């Protein structure tokens, strides 16, 4: 049994830990709210872009655009989005598992990785996966140009024929308590179903094909942006949950240890009393 | 007759309001829109979108290229980055211009992405034109 002093020190240190986890939970909660707002803020742009893409798909032969070209998949690029920092529960391990299962499904296919986030990079490097690009600290000040630059790098590798398919692996933010790892094909672009219900003919300026050519890179940029936003919100939600659990566990531990402290204190008092009584009896 | 105008970027909705008329920098030349315009999808180059709310003076937004979807009573401008002229930070824009010019002047260096630097320069100059 630990001594009274040891027990008191442990209670004090767990209280300190609890203060830290509680603070981290509050910070994560605030960041998550911001991240959720960012997801909502991206929606009008997403809807319109999708709209225009569908409208155009009807009047353009998409096979003419290099970003739509399906090739037999011999070389696959995987962009893995994780967090830069830890202490966020199972957030990173769940996407990493997704990579492991993707890798076991792709036997005979040459895999190369782009790591977005420190945690993903160390996961990939530790397992000797071929990491060809990494992007660190994207989430510190998450802004659209970061997404555009990642998308540009991935696109040029696809268009040059260096890889035959590009897949994004990230955590999708479903709700505060649910983040689901997903693998989303970025390139080649899966053609959208076209809409033909328009009562009026649209004027396309310039012609649909050139319009499509300038639209698809933006579409890809946006897919990456959306994945970053989802992952960011998921990370904060996951951290918030993990820190909430940690705070609760610390509370339970403190309760348990406080009882132990009291027991130890009581038994010391009892012992002292017995000593005194024993001494007194000897005198009398 | 006014119509609805929305300017949206991946990061936010920059502007939503009712306007009387609009001018936009189309890839093949600028164009104007009034209410009842024939439905159109146009791509835009880097430049400025000018619009005026009824009775108010003209306002400008600088955009880095994008698209305009024109319907009879509603126009949506999609741009990857857009800023209202009153929000443009002159110092920041000047810094961006200087950075881009510096990068271009060192173009012997193979690390410099000339296309990207040129685009950055164009965006910075475009922002500065509006302030």
Folded structure, characterized:
The complex is a heterodimer of chains A (284) and B (131). Chain A has 284 residues and is of the alpha/beta class. Chain A has two domains: 4-24 and 242-283, ATP synthase, gamma subunit, helix hairpin domain (Helix Hairpins, Orthogonal Bundle); 28-241, Pyruvate Kinase, Chain: A, domain 1, CATH 3.40.1380. Chain A has helices spanning 4-57, 91-105, 118-126, 144-159, 208-283, and strands at residues 75-81, 110-116, 131-135, 165-175, 178-187, 203-205. Chain A has a five-stranded mixed sheet with strand order 3-2-1-4-5, with helices on both faces. Chain A starts with a helix and ends with a helix. Chain B folds into two domains: 3-85, ATP Synthase, domain 1, CATH 2.60.15; 90-130. Chain B contains two helices and eight strands, in the order ββββββββαα. The radius of gyration of chain B is 16 Å and the shape is elongated. The mean pLDDT of chain B is 87. The interface between A and B is medium-sized, with 33 and 25 residues.
Largest sheet of chain A: 5 strands, mixed
Structural class of chain A: alpha/beta
> How many distinct beta strands of chain A?
6
Q: Which CATH C-level class of the largest domain in chain A is it?
A: Alpha Beta
Give the CA-CA distance, first to last residue of chain A. Answer: 35 Å
Helix content of chain B: 25-40%
State mean pLDDT of chain A (0 to 100 scale): 91
CATH class of the largest domain in chain B: Mainly Beta
Concise synopsis of the structure shown:
The complex is a heterodimer of chains A (284) and B (131). Chain A is an alpha/beta fold and 284 residues long. Chain A has 2 domains: 4-24 and 242-283, Helix Hairpins; 28-241, ATP synthase, F1 complex, gamma subunit (Pyruvate Kinase, Chain: A, domain 1).
């Amino acid at each position: 049994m630990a001594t009274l002093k040891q027990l008191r020190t442990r209670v004090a240190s767990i209280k300190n830990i609890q203060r830290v986890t509680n603070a981290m939970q509050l910070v994560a909660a605030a960041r998550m709210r911001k991240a959720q707002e960012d997801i909502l803020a991206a929606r009008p742009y997403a809807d319109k872009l999708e709209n225009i893409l569908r409208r155009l798909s009807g009047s353009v032969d998409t096979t003419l655009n290099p970003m739509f070209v399906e090739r037999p998949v011999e070389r696959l690029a995987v962009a893995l989005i994780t967090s830069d920092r830890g202490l966020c529960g199972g957030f990173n391990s769940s996407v990493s598992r997704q990579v492991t299962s993707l890798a076991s499904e792709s036997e005979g296919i040459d895999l190369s990785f782009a790591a977005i986030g420190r945690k993903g990079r160390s996961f990939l490097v530790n397992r000797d996966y071929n990491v060809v690009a990494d992007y660190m600290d994207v989430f510190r000040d998450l802004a659209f140009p970061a997404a555009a630059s990642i998308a540009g790098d991935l696109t040029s590798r696809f268009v040059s024929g260096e890889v035959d398919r590009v897949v994004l692996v990230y955590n999708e933010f479903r709700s505060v308590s649910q983040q689901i790892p997903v693998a989303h094909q970025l390139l080649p672009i899966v053609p959208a179903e076209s809409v033909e219900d328009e009562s009026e003919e649209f004027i396309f300026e310039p012609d649909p094909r050139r319009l499509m050519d300038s639209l698809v890179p933006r579409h890809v940029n946006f897919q990456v942006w959306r994945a970053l936003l989802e992952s960011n919100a998921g990370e904060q939600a996951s951290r918030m949950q993990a820190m909430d659990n940690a705070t609760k566990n610390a509370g339970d531990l403190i309760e348990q240890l406080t009882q132990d402290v009291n027991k130890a204190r009581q038994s010391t008092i009892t012992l002292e009393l017995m000593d005194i009584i024993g001494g007194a009896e000897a005198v009398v | 007759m006014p119509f609805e105008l929305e300017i949206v970027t991946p990061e936010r909705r920059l502007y939503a309001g009712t306007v009387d008329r609009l001018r936009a920098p189309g890839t093949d030349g600028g164009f104007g829109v009034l209410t009842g315009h024939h439905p159109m999808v146009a791509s835009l180059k880097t430049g400025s979108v000018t619009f005026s709310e009824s009775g108010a003076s003209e306002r400008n937004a600088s955009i880095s290229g994008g698209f305009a979807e024109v319907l009879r009573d509603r126009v949506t401008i999609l741009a990857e980055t857009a800023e209202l002229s009153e929000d443009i930070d002159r110092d920041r824009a000047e810094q961006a211009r200087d950075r881009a010019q510096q990068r271009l002047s060192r173009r012997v260096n193979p690390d410099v992405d000339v296309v990207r630097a040129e685009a950055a320069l164009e965006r910075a100059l475009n922002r500065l034109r509006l302030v």
